[in-house]
Design brief:
about 325 residues; about 15% strand; alpha/beta
């Protein structure tokens, strides 16, 4: 009987040890008899990920986190064990995030094109890329961080609400009511003004229609002119005009040659005129200085007075001859 009890106790002990080992293996999700493939990813921060957390691909559990360790350059490397039948997506990346509200985390392997459009996530993936043997990784903020951010946003909203409440007092409400009333009065005044000036608007519309008709007539005239230009081109008038323009250009060139010759002759005449002016200037200098007869006549006042007295005497002589012609002329007839 005693041996039977010892056998039962040993059997229970072995069964308990087997249960404990099985539970441990289940908790650690160890795959007995299966060869798992290892994949390494690197992050700047893995959040609250722990060894044994699930690795998910396209929403299906495909492995677990085996090891997390610090690496050089400020990186954190995380080694994951995946089921051998699992294929990684094209251009893979690893995103770690909270999987529940109770602090559980998971690592999701997805294509880079499926990453959320978060600038922080995109920057983390870009920094972690570069090593083809290591997958780039990024982490999303957990619920606690989001709650902290929401609390800060709520505080900011509360402060803004307090400022609005301070600014929007009873006096501000009364002023707003008065402003609304003023707007209503302005609107009514505008309606009255529009009603009064509707006739003017009708006149403006009539003028616009008349202007439109004038523009249409001008467009028609332009079409006719264009048609005439086309017909002139086809009849050879443009060719004749170009020939006439060429002849006019040749005549202008000949005229330019003549003008050049005239300019040369004028240049020579300019030298002669300059010499004449120099000589005339020297003569005028001598006249102003009183040199010569002309200079004496211009500058000597006595010659002027003598000439004036001579003219007076000649007038008296002429008057006396008219009065007494026999005194000066004696005609005898034989």
């Amino acid at each position: 009987m005693r041996r039977t009890n010892d056998f039962v106790v040993g059997l229970v002990t072995l069964a308990g040890a087997a249960v404990i080992v099985g539970a441990t293996l289940w908790v650690q999700q160890a795959a007995l008899g299966q060869r798992e493939s290892g994949v390494t990813a690197r992050f700047r921060d893995v959040g609250n990920v722990q060894v044994g957390n699930a690795v998910v691909i396209r929403g299906v559990r495909a492995g677990r986190v085996k090891r997390i360790e610090l690496a050089d350059g400020g990186w954190v490397e995380m080694q994951m064990l995946l089921d051998p039948a699992v294929e990684l997506p094209h251009d893979p990346a690893v995103l770690v995030s909270a999987s529940s509200l109770f602090g559980e985390w998971q690592a999701t392997v997805m294509s880079k094109s499926g990453l959320p459009p978060n600038p922080d996530v995109q920057q983390q993936i870009a920094e972690a890329s570069g090593d083809r043997h290591v997958l780039p990784g990024a982490s999303l903020p957990d619920i606690a961080q989001l709650t902290g951010v929401a609390a800060r946003i709520a505080d900011d909203v509360a402060s803004v609400a307090e400022r609005v409440q301070v600014a929007f007092t009873d006096s501000a409400a009364r002023e707003l009511r008065r402003s609304i009333g003023n707007v209503e009065r302005v609107t009514s005044d505008l309606a009255v003004a529009v009603g009064r000036h509707s006739n003017n608007l009708d006149g403006v519309l009539v003028d616009v229609r008349a202007g439109t008709r004038s523009l249409n007539a001008a467009a028609a005239s332009l079409r006719r002119t264009t048609a005439r230009v086309d017909s002139s081109t086809s009849a050879g008038e443009i060719t004749r005009m170009v020939a006439d323009a060429g002849e006019a250009t040749a005549q202008l060139r000949a005229a330019a040659v003549v003008l050049r010759a005239v300019a040369d002759s004028l240049s020579a005449s300019q030298g002669t005129l300059q010499r004449v002016l120099v000589r005339t200037d020297s003569v005028m200098v001598k006249v102003n200085a009183g040199q010569g007869s002309l200079g004496q006549l211009v500058t000597n006042p006595s010659l002027y007075h003598n000439g004036d007295s001579l003219v007076a005497e000649l007038r008296d002589l002429v008057a006396d001859i008219r009065a007494h012609p026999k005194k000066y002329v004696n005609v005898r007839i034989f």
